[in-house]
Amino acid sequence: MKYSELEADVLRLIIEAPESGVRAFARETVTRLVRPELLDGAAEDELTEEALAALTSACANVLTITAADLNDALATVYDGILVEDDLDLGVLTAVSALAHWKSYLEQNRRGELYELAIRSFEEIDHEVSADLDDILGTPEMAAEYERIRRLLAPGADQSPAGISPLS
Q: Tens digit of pLDDT for each residue in 39-61?
C-alpha cells in the first residue's frame, strides 16, 4: 500500500466509524503518542523547566485534563521552547498530539483524530524508516494499521483492556 492510499483509507475509517470506535481510537492513540518515554530526549536547552513540567503533566493526565487546562499547558510549553527549529522528535510528537487532542476535545472534529493517526504512523516511521511505496512493509507499520482498523471498524471490539470509552 502506498502512503497516499494509507492516508485515504485511515480518513475513510475515521469518517465511517461508529462513535464508540472513534472514542476508543482517540483515547488509545493520544495515550500512545504522549507516553512518558517520548519525553526522555528532551534536553535542558530545548524547554524551560516550567515548560517541561507543563508538558509532562499534560501528557500524564491526557485522558482527564480539560480542554481549557490543556490550552493553558500548551501555552506554557510554547512560551518555554528555547530552540528555533531543532526540538526533540519525541517532544514534538507529544506537543503535536496534545494540540490535536485539545482541538478534538473543544470541537469534536474527527479530522483531529485523523491527524493523531498520521502522527502515530510518523512516530513509528521514525523508528523503522518505512518505504512510502510499501508503507505497510514493516511489521511495526502493519501492526499500527491493524490497530487503527480494529478500533475503527464497525462492530469491532472497541474496548481494549484498560481503556474505557469517553463518556
A: 887 777 899 999 999 999 999 99
Residues 56 and 39: their CA atoms lie apart, in Å, by: 8
- 113, HSE (Cβ side, Cα atoms, 13 Å): 27
What residues have CB less than 8 Å from 89, skipping those under 6 apart?
41, 126
Between the alpha carbon of residue 11 and those of residues 14, 17, 90, 167, the distances in Å are 5, 10, 24, 23
Which amino acid makes up residue 39?
Answer: L
Whole-number Cα distances in Å, 9 to 12, 13, 84, 128, 146: 5, 6, 34, 21, 12
Q: How much is the pLDDT for 155?
A: 64
Tell me what percent of the chain is helix, strand and coil, each rounded to the nearest 5: 65, 0, 30
Reported as a single tens digit per residue, the pLDDT across 1-37 is 999 999 999 999 999 999 999 999 999 999 999 999 9
CA distance between the termini of the chain: 35
